[in-house]
Amino acid sequence: MSSSKTYRTEGVVLRRSDSGEADRIITFLTPDKGKIHAVARGVRKPKSKLYGLVELFTHSSLMLAQGHSLDIVAQGETIHTFLPLKSDLQRSACAFYVAELVNRFTLEHEENRALFDLLIHTLEQLCCEKNVSLLLRHFEVNLLQCLGYRPNLHRCVECNALLQPVTNAFSPAGGGILCPGCVKTDQMARPISVDAIKVLRVLQGFDFATASRVRIKQGLAQEVEQVLRSYIEFLLEHKVQSAAWLDTLKGGDLASPSPSYPVTSAS
Amino acid sequence: MGRQSISLTEPVARLVDALHKLPGIGPKSAQRLAYYLLQADKEQVKALSEAITMVKEKVSLCSVCFNIADSEKCEVCRDPQRDASMICVVEKPMDVLPIERTKVYKGLYHVLHGTIAPTEGIGPDQLRVRELLARLRDGTVKEVMLATNPNVEGEATAMYLQKQIGAMGVRVTRLARGLPFGADLEYTDDVTLTGAIQRREQIS
Fold it and tell me: Does A255 touch chain B (CB under 8 A)?
């Protein structure tokens, strides 16, 4: 161990899986090294000193030791536990969804500082924001932007004509909107209303504080959610697993407001 | 795996392969175990292989609580001395053992066989939740003690069950979250410590 090199970074836990008798393999998103996997030794024992650092959604400063195949979490300190994401059903479901998207869209060791900042910012807001579903839409639009999949919402992606205020279509394969004349070029394109395009433009162009001032009716919110989900699932070529859980919670009487929890501030 | 298998004789290679499939057993450990079995006396190996076969043939899940059982109902569910007004909900059969070891708990159990894990696509429908709710309907059970693990998935499962069961008028409790005996405050995580402060005990 003494000859192994150590390095410092910080990270948010996106995923963890059990390994061996009491170890866990942790997937972190870091600002300088992109996504990394590291093993936390003995962390499933109740007296582990690492436990707090490597729980889901936790943001910690880390010291890692280079290992043979996987780096090892040596020590660290929690920066932000995001407690409400662990003690509130609705918010925890949102955090699962955010972490899954970030995990699925990223490759190991690809630095993306904007994405890291977006993740931290989103988790922070998820702790206290009332309108969590709009926050998730804002996250999705910005995630796509960070990754280079920003949808084109102003011109037809086929003929480049300026979009008219009529029902157009969203084409996941085209990465944007098709005008009525070009709809037939993509069979997967789905109609999108003028209002939905406007909402997407607001989400794309403004920070959440501004975007959240827009009042959106439920039907329209659903349309926007469907458009973004179809685009994301097209890009991932995979269903987003945790979306089903969000839908389950949305359906029943479980969406009732939860008691407010104190938000621990970052030190 | 393949490279080593060539130099081993076929039955040994098969054993190594089979052991390698067990959780937590890497290729080297598999070889070590296989070599040990090769050296061990016949009686011991026979006892092991019989124990393995037996476990698959004789053991099934309890029809009431879904703990592992050697007949239709498990030992706890069969015992008339147990307090039928209380159910302790755990994630997996192995979680029953530490609670039994305390000898403090006298009620019954319910094993969910997992937790809500959204990213793995596991929701309440994939767990024994419906069966738990069905057990509460006749009014015998007065309290459900949630003993899922104190991590994000375990908490989510507990919160979900709390909402479902609370609506049925049954008392719902959760295992307390606090400092483990022998722990060090300096290394305690914020979530545990926050819980320990919020739910502190009056001692005088």
Answer: no
Sign of the C-alpha dihedral computed for residues A125, A130, A136 and A141 taken in this order: negative
Interface touch B160/A49, C-beta < 8 Å:
no
CB atoms within 10 A of CB A210: 10
The domains of chain A are located at 6-80, 129-253
Q: Name the residue facing A92 among B156, B163, B189 (closest C-beta).
A: B156
CB contact under 8 A, A254 and B160: yes
Q: Name all contacts of A233-239 with Cβ < 8 Å and 24+ positions apart.
A: A234/A172, A234/A173, A234/A188, A235/A105, A235/A144, A235/A149, A235/A172, A236/A104, A236/A105, A238/A104
Output the 3-class SS for A74-138: EEEEEEECCCHHHHCHHHHHHHHHHHHHHHHHCCECCCCHHHHHHHHHHHHHHCCCCCHHHHHHH
- Tell me whether residues B191 and A47 touch, CB distance under 8 A: no
The model's confidence at residue B185, banded by pLDDT at 50, 70 and 90, is confident
User: Which residues of A, range 23-82, sit inside 8 Å of B by Cβ?
Assistant: 46-47, 49, 51-53, 55-57, 78, 81
Strands B83-90 and B68-69: unpaired
Q: Touching check for A246 and chain B: CB below 8 Å?
A: yes
- The helix (run of H) or strand (run of E) holding residue B51 is helix B42-58
Task: State the pTM of this model.
Answer: 0.87
Global ipTM = 0.84
**What is the pLDDT at residue B178?**
85
Task: Domain A129-253: give its CATH code.
Answer: 1.20.1440
Task: Identify the residue among B28, B148, B149, B160 best suited for mutation to test binding to A, counting A beta carbons within 10 A and taking the highest.
Answer: B160
Residues from B contacting A (CB-CB < 8 Å) are 24, 116, 118-121, 123-124, 151-153, 155-156, 159-160, 163, 167, 180, 182-184, 187-192, 194
- pLDDT tens digit sequence for A245-260: 999 998 654 444 333 3
Q: A6-80: which CATH architecture?
A: Beta Barrel (2.40)
Gap between the Cα atoms of A60 and A72, Å rounded: 15
Q: Using an 8 Å Cβ cutoff, are A92 and B152 in contact?
A: yes
| Token output for A232 | 């994301």
Q: What is the pLDDT of residues A196-209, one digit of tens each?
A: 999 999 999 999 99
Q: CATH assignment of B81-174?
A: 3.40.1360.10
